[in-house]
Design goal:
Length: about 140
């Protein structure tokens, strides 16, 4: 008696996990990129504007569910997080849920990496995931 119920329950749970792992659809042509700074730049003083770009998709604030849209997340000095989970919010994962496309950063001396990860209304990467190349900058 319990086997069919358990099997149905497990199937529902598995389906829910697969749906989550699939992510919100977005155009396969969508591209996120860092406009400025450029890869390899030396930033004296460590204060800089990061300008974020996007092609073939739209910007919408967090919480707004609209087809082919999302918002930027800037990954600083870290690798991309898991692409089937909500992006963490910490000093290495900056959220721009109001739809911002630029931010003023202050970085300490050293080598740094920057990378964009575009995500849906709930801060989860799309399917397919849209992220920029990782760039390296130096603060002397």
């Amino acid at each position: 008696m319990w086997k069919p119920i358990l099997a149905a329950f497990m199937g529902t749970c598995l389906f829910g996990q697969l749906a989550l792992a699939e992510g919100t659809p977005i155009s396969k042509k969508a591209q996120a990129y860092i406009v400025w700074p450029k890869d390899g730049m030396v930033i004296h003083g460590g204060k800089l504007w990061v300008r974020m770009g996007l092609k073939n998709a739209g910007i919408a604030p967090a919480g707004v569910e609209k087809s082919n849209t999302g918002h930027h997340h800037l990954i600083v000095d870290s690798d991309l997080p898991p692409l089937d989970q909500e992006i963490p919010a910490d000093k290495n994962h900056l959220h721009f849920g109001a739809g911002q496309t630029e931010v003023r950063l202050e970085l300490p001396p050293g080598e740094h990496t920057l990378q964009l990860l575009f995500a849906d209304s709930g801060h989860t990467p799309h399917n397919p995931p849209v992220y920029s190349e990782k760039i390296r900058i130096t603060v002397p």
